[in-house]
Design brief:
The chain contains 15 helices and 18 strands. By secondary structure, it is an alpha/beta fold. It has two domains: about 5-235, Rossmann fold; about 255-435, 3-Layer(aba) Sandwich (Molybdenum Cofactor Biosythetic Enzyme, Chain A), CATH 3.40.980. The strands form three sheets. It has an eight-stranded parallel sheet with strand order 2-3-1-4-11-5-10-9, sandwiched between helices.
Amino acid sequence: MTHETPVLVIADDLTGANAAGGRFASAGLRSATVSWNAFAGPLPGFDAVIVATDSRHIPAADAASRVRTIIDRVPGAGLVVKRIDTTLRGNISSETAALLAGVRAERPAERVRALVVTAYPSSGRTTLDGVQLLGGVPLEQTELRYDVHNPMSTSNVSEIFAQQEPLTSRHIGIDTVLGDGLEAALAAGDEDLVICDALEDAHIERIAVAAANVSRADGVRWVTVDPGPAGAYLARELGLPDRSERTESSLPPLLAAIGSVTDLSIAQADRLAGHVLVHVLEVDALRLAGEREGATDIADPVGEVAAQLAELLASVSFPEQVLLRVQPPSHGGQLSAAGREALPALFAAVVARALETQEISGVYSSGGDITSAILDAAAVRAFEVSGEVLPLAVYGTAVGGALDGVPIVTKGGLIGSEDTAEACMQQLRALAELRYRRP
């Protein structure tokens, strides 16, 4: 089912709204933040609309009213998210109650519940035994105890969510999150809130997978209440946005070519491969280099993979992405020294052959040798550098050859962190949209 607004996020300040927008953008959703004063309704063409209510320090009743107004103005969203402060400040209780009331009024026949995952592990915010920790310390034992607007007297998540409204809740501990009973625990009960422990991003992903399964099996309509990660993960697991019924003609897809097999590059490729917009073609490096035992009868291994890549590129469209990656050595085996030397040119030849019949809207490459080989194979005369995504990861435009005018983002195989490939692809998507002057 398609939705005019696949994901609606309601944040209580603009900084939080932008942070949430970054999470959804990194997940491949076209995202926009809107201030309360500028908000009028849906924004066609965007996958995630994030509205900043500027309500963290206003009276609770006024904050709740703004939340209901947003829900009323953007009906039928595929997933509604209440973006909360990572340290649980503000009108969390009243805004969550208003969110539940608004979605329940919109969907009276459905079982609407709030999935509350207050952890943001990459920022040092974790939840254990239902207690919110900042750097491993309960909130009321940090400087937040003296916060001017919201002095924290407790870090018990259920107590904080019941301070303004009588919201009922149930806690799911870390042992259940990591065990086999997570789906059953999420499906049970009829409390307003299901509060989950999480110490790592992987725990939040497990919760999202289980919640999506419960939604499909038991008909639970989840709203998420979280600082950002849980909503983005659940949107992915629910298949939002759903582009299967797309009817308009579209631009060609983006291509990510990751030929580096450093541990970091493999981790970056694994993370990118998990996104709903990404379609993966894994290259058997030994087969490509003619070193796979029993596969010596292949006359043209480059042509074989190039045909597969061309077929995949033809089957998807912007903003979808094709990830062409070398199979990790731990799965496919180690190349000889000669094979490693030949791999960049062979990998690049695959890309160049595919581009003889298929277009792309942009290309991201990881690995200096791979990037150089791709530019050479595509007969690119120059790379016009426009800026950096982060140090040693640059973006610009190809000049001449088969990629003339095509946006490029490139970085070394040892550059960045696990989410760097996501950030590079988001930059590439933005460049492609500018090139084609998308709305």
